[in-house]
Amino acid sequence: MSGLLDDRLARCRRLYLRDYEVQMQIGAHDYERLAPQRVRVSVDLYIPLADSTPLADRLAEVVDYDYIRTTIAERTAQGHVDLQETLCDDLLARMLAHPKVLAARVSTEKPDVYPDCAAVGCEVFGIKESVS
């Protein structure tokens, strides 16, 4: 069964961050190692409603969007990555490391690779067997 069809996701809240833009060292080609490139990152987090429904309207009761941004910023600042696939996999693992997150989707895109298209990119989805 595809992860996106997993019935556990129906009992989740989806948090998302769209098109977070960073400058980073990425690319497998020699010319891509000369300067940072623009990369856009989008993330969806699926958090069980039991872990994301605030009773007192307090930030501590939910997963903070800052977790997503900070995690992306920390990873992209770590140095050169050859492949978007590697970046997506690393970010997915970090998103799934949050104890409240059941599943996550991470996509990256490089908008400046080809002049005749909007972007080239990669996307990955993962779901935990269980949530701590």
How would you describe the overall organization of this protein?
With 132 residues, this protein is of the alpha+beta class. The chain has one domain (3-127): GTP cyclohydrolase I, C-terminal domain/NADPH-dependent 7-cyano-7-deazaguanine reductase, N-terminal domain (GTP Cyclohydrolase I, domain 2, 2-Layer Sandwich). Helices cover 19% and strands 31% of the residues. Strands 1-2-3-4 form a 4-stranded antiparallel β-sheet, with helices on one face. Helix 1 (65-76) runs antiparallel to helix 2. It is elongated, with a radius of gyration of 16 Å. The mean pLDDT is 93.
What is the H-and-E element order?
EEHHEE
Mean pLDDT, all residues: 93
Report the total helices.
2
Shape: elongated
Termini Cα gap:
23 Å
Largest sheet: 4 strands, antiparallel
Approximate helicity band: 10-25%
Assign the CATH class.
Answer: Alpha Beta
Low-confidence stretches: none
CATH architecture: 2-Layer Sandwich
- Main-sheet strand order equals 1-2-3-4
**Strand percentage, roughly?**
25-35%
Class derived from helix and strand content: alpha+beta
Into how many domains do the coordinates divide? 1
SSE layout and pairing:
Blueprint: E1 12-24, E2 37-48, H1 65-76, H2 84-96, E3 103-110, E4 120-127
Antiparallel strand pairs: 1-2, 2-3, 3-4
Helix pairs in contact: 1-2
Short description:
This protein has about 130 residues and is of the alpha+beta class. The chain is about 20% helix and about 30% strand. The chain contains two helices and four strands.
What structural keywords apply?
alpha+beta, GTP Cyclohydrolase I, domain 2, 2 helices, 132 residues, four-stranded antiparallel sheet
